[in-house]
Write a structure and sequence with these properties.
3 domains, disordered N terminus, alpha/beta, globular, Rossmann fold
């Protein structure tokens, strides 16, 4: 069964990477994060200007403290987020039919305002659809003034996480593994032969049947997990608390929830922020082609940015785009056999396929840092080493490296992605057979490796069989939101929610403000950039609107973080052990298993040239253990190390074996660049 053959796995994970990047475990060098916030560059391409009054008074609230209300509603500390108070409401299964009395449970999590309360700031986060809001809740990127005046509210939308979850993990796992491991040897990559097309149709039908059966739900009830029902759950929570108005932030798929709420309950909104915005007026097939083109455009921009970086240019032979296309063609014709090292010292034989390359390339396009990681892995592949690409595949694909099995993401529901997407959208019109024929026909336009990262349209095969999928395309009215101040945050290099979609939403708004980055990533708020973060804070805390209808944020860098060359494979390339340690820090910092972990996670991985490296949470630090760990051949480390959060110091205390022997203590301070090196190595004493 190949239920995801036609559905690139990267499409089902529209925002989970963003949540990871907020908490990425980086002892980041200065080149990764600009030291000085960039001054906004203001443009005035709009035909209208804001009203003379640019300050919106805070919405009146009669509630001084939300905590007694949360207690009355049975609020308790959230198990995974103890700083938040979780409240579970019984809400109608179908908000739009008062005659039906069936209910489900939906859970909201609240961090009460620390000072004078202005109201609730609800987060439609982290996206997907299918991403859990509560387990992914992150508060560090909010300005202290926002935390002082607003109750920050996260929620798990119905059908996932803490809110009456539905799931078909067996069907999803089978499909993901099949998609990533298969190799198309019949013509071009994609469904270009009648046999492949018929197999895909059969697989889609079987996947839907298996998934629905595994969920154990009456198929007729799947329609009640749509976005309009989610928006009504937010309204139910507002009513339970008693605020007249709320502020609402949506990101990625969350912008669909936010726009839907605004269309239905405009009078209960004080302000709206859309970040990485979906254009709900597009049909299923229009959205698929829009996103497919955006991913391709961002990949091309990333590869061209590599050419402008001298070290990246050299690593990829002067024309990164040409190398990628050549490599993609090579992998599509013949998958590459390789051995993946495990921490135990064992190596497992694997095969790198074209589908895996597409998955990794697409998933790494979400942010500047992940793009740079992809370029390093691509450079390693050019040098004959597939393992760095495989590391990205296993981490981002939630695959157990030892078994090759899909283990899933505990914070993301593939099942609810499919259900919400197919319940909200119809691909084409007509009978299921007619819709399927149109999907296949449209898919032929994007078969193969050019345009790169193709195949999104084949999601329509699943939706053709999904029980709650509309029989005809659904028409959604453009959001105008008369009188409501709306900030639309956007980036020209957003692969998942293309720039032109956010631009179109902004242009239809009655009182909209467009803040965007030339370049950038998926979701621009919360990355520590003054623009847009200060505009958001001013809007929420002071009711202050941007000075012009459109504001361009200047980020530097805007496309990729500077390329960090691969560590030399042999210790003979180094003349000083200090340089070896500094290069090792660069490698650890960019190992996908470590880069995408969070501060409370632990992990163990094989070092590139043998041995193992383990990281685990400690008191205010991350602790390291090295067991004959070699990041460069001939320099094996056994011992311990750490990265301290408050001091930003990374340290090693290790015995060295290999080409030379010794015992060294080394430290590096990210704040000032100072190093210390003590001990002996190769018969030489060090004390500096």
């Amino acid at each position: 069964m190949y239920p995801k053959r036609w559905l690139p796995a990267w499409l089902t994970l529209v925002l989970s990477l963003l949540a990871c990047n907020y908490v990425t475990r980086l002892f980041a060098p200065a080149t990764d994060t600009p030291d000085v916030p960039q001054t906004p560059v203001i443009s005035d391409p709009a035909t209208s200007t804001p009203p003379s009054a640019t300050v919106i008074p805070p919405a009146a609230t009669k509630i001084d403290d939300i905590r007694p209300i949360l207690a009355q509603l049975g609020g308790q500390p959230c198990e995974e987020q103890p700083d938040l108070t979780c409240v579970t409401l019984n809400v109608p299964l179908n908000h739009f039919d008062p005659a039906q009395d069936e209910t489900i449970q939906v859970t909201f999590a609240v961090l009460p305002a620390s000072g004078e309360r202005y109201g609730m700031y609800v987060q439609a986060f982290p996206g997907g659809p299918g991403g859990e809001g509560i387990s992914s809740a992150y508060l560090d990127y909010f300005d202290e003034q926002i935390l002082e005046h607003f109750d920050i509210v996260y929620f798990d939308q119905r059908g996932l996480g803490l809110s009456s979850p539905l799931d078909c993990p067996i069907a999803n796992a089978s499909g993901t593994e099949a998609f990533l491991t298969e190799s198309d040897q019949a013509g071009l990559e994609g469904l270009d032969t009648p046999k492949e097309q018929q197999e895909a149709i059969k697989d889609a039908r079987e996947f839907v049947e298996d998934c629905v059966a595994e969920m154990g739900i009456d198929p007729a009830k799947l329609t009640f997990y749509s976005t309009d029902q989610v928006a009504e759950d937010i309204e139910a929570f507002r009513q339970a608390i008693g605020d007249e108005k709320i502020w609402l932030y949506g990101i990625s798929y969350g912008t669909a929830v936010a726009q839907t709420y605004a269309a239905a309950h405009l009078d209960h909104l004080a302000g709206l922020i859309l970040d990485g915005t979906i254009d709900l007026t597009l049909s299923g097939e229009e959205s698929a082609f829009s996103q497919e083109k955006a991913f391709n455009d961002v990949l091309v921009a990333t590869l061209k940015a590599c050419d402008e970086d001298p070290e990246c240019n050299q690593a990829l032979g002067g024309d990164a785009l040409a190398f990628y296309d050549k490599f993609a063609q090579q992998v599509s014709k013949k998958p590459i056999a390789y051995e993946f090292p495990l921490p135990s010292g064992k190596k497992v034989k694997r095969t790198f396929t074209f589908n895996q390359l597409e998955f990794v390339a697409a998933y790494q396009m979400y942010s500047l840092g992940s793009r740079s990681l992809f370029l390093r892995a691509l450079a390693a592949a050019k040098a004959g080493d597939i393992v760095p690409l495989a590391r990205l595949l296993y981490v981002q694909g939630n695959i157990d490296p030892a078994t090759g099995e899909y283990v899933g993401d505990p914070t993301f529901s593939d099942t609810m992605f499919t259900n919400v997407h197919c319940t909200d959208n119809a691909y084409f019109s007509g009978t299921p057979e007619e819709r399927i024929a149109k999907v296949i026909e449209a898919g032929q336009a994007s078969n193969g490796t050019v345009p790169r990262l193709d195949g999104s349209i084949y999601t329509g095969l699943t939706c053709a069989f999904w029980p709650s999928s509309p029989k005809e395309p659904v028409s959604v009215a453009p959001l105008v939101a008369p009188g409501l101040p709306v900030l639309v945050l956007n980036a020209t290099l957003d692969p998942a929610t293309p720039f032109h979609e956010g631009k179109a939403v902004f242009e239809r708004l009655d009182n909209g403000y467009h803040i965007y980055v030339e370049g950038g990533l998926h979701g621009i708020f919360g990355w520590g950039e003054a623009c847009p973060d200060e505009y958001v804070t001013d809007f929420l805390v002071y009711g202050k609107l941007p000075p012009q209808r459109e504001t361009i944020c200047k980020w530097e860098p805007a496309v990729i973080y500077p390329f960090v060359p691969l560590m030399p494979a042999d210790v003979s390339a180094f003349t000083d052990p200090e340089d070896i340690f500094l290069a090792t820090i660069d490698e650890i910092n960019r190992m996908p298993e470590y880069y995408y972990s969070t501060e409370d996670e632990e992990g163990s991985l094989a070092c590139p040239q043998g041995g193992s490296f383990t990281f685990s949470p400690g008191e205010n630090q991350i602790e390291y253990t090295f067991e004959k760990c070699a990041f460069t051949k001939g320099f094996e480390m056994t011992g311990t190390g750490s990265y301290h959060f408050e001091t930003s110091i990374v340290s090693f205390s290790v015995d060295i074996t290999g080409r030379k022997t010794g015992k060294l203590d080394f430290s590096y301070n990210w704040n000032n660049g100072k190093t210390t090196l003590k001990g002996q190595y190769g018969g030489k004493e060090y004390d500096r």
